[in-house]
Amino acid sequence: MLLSQSGVQLFEAVNDDIVEEIRNDDFPFSENRHYNTNSDRGSDSKHLDDLVREFLNKVDKALVKVNNETELKCFVITTKDNYSRLQQVADKPSVYLGYANIDYNNVATHHIAKQSWESVKEQQKQRRTEAISEMQEAVAHGKVLTDLQEIYQAAIDGRGELLIVHHNFSQVVVMKDERTFDIVSDPKTPNATDDITSIISWEVISKKGRVIFTSQDEIKDLGKIVLKTRY
After folding, report:
1. In CATH, what is the architecture of 141-229?
2. What contacts 2, CB < 8 A, 6 or more positions away?
3. pLDDT: is 122 or 41 the higher one?
4. 212-227 average pLDDT score
5. Residue range 112-125: average pLDDT?
6. Do residues 87 and 93 lie in contact, with contact meaning Cβ atoms separated by under 8 Å?
7. DSSP secondary structure string, 31-42?
């Protein structure tokens, strides 16, 4: 989201590329129309601040509406003051991934997409590192599965709390029944499922678990796919 008091635009992005500008009944916003109309209060800083917050509150409600429809989170290009105020009025602060300072001389879409992606990449790396530490701690409590068949069964049973998959790992299987499979090497094998990890990932996510894909080699001490179970 490119946020200033002269207008607000919302974009959908994949990594550092803008896919499209989101246009609906709310976005793009025109300039902040909540300005002081009372000459006696022109120097009243609290009154002026309240007017800005009222504008940002409307922006937030419009953004939350988009989040409810798409489940996409938002990175904001704006000033520190505007982002601070936005967080204070936010109905769902967790929707926001963070912010980067706006450069009013460079608000081209490719520039703001790159700004956002650099910050999001750092956040993702931090989350992956924390997830690996969480998994390593769970080993001592006997809550980690490394056998692919057991991981699959726990995932479909709703026991998967955290799944970590090394990014270069995939496995072809042939399903024997709803709960078991044979591992095969040739994806052209009749009735083969080309990557069971995608199915496992979906089962974990759909049952409110978390899934992390990583290239960080620390996870290989446990295996290329590991699951922390809820119980």
Report:
1. 2-Layer Sandwich (3.30)
2. 8, 9, 10, 11, 77, 78, 102, 107, 112
3. 122
4. 88
5. 93
6. yes
7. S-------GGGT
Confidence of residue 83 (pLDDT cuts 50, 70, 90): very high
Q: Hey, how many other C-beta atoms are within 10 angstroms of the C-beta on 49?
A: 12
Tokens coding 202? 């979906």
Q: Map out the domains of the chain as residue ranges.
A: 2-123, 141-229
Give residues with Cβ within 8 angstroms of 152, minimum separation 6.
179, 181, 196, 199, 200, 203
All residues at 6 or more sequence positions from 82 whose CB lies less than 8 Å from its CB, including other chains: 3, 4, 5, 52, 56
Question: 180: which 2 tokens?
Answer: 């078991």
User: Among residues 47, 49, 27, which one has the least CA distance to residue 38?
Assistant: 47
Query: Is residue 78 pLDDT above 60, yes or no?
Result: yes
φ, ψ at 190 (rounded to 5°): -55, 135
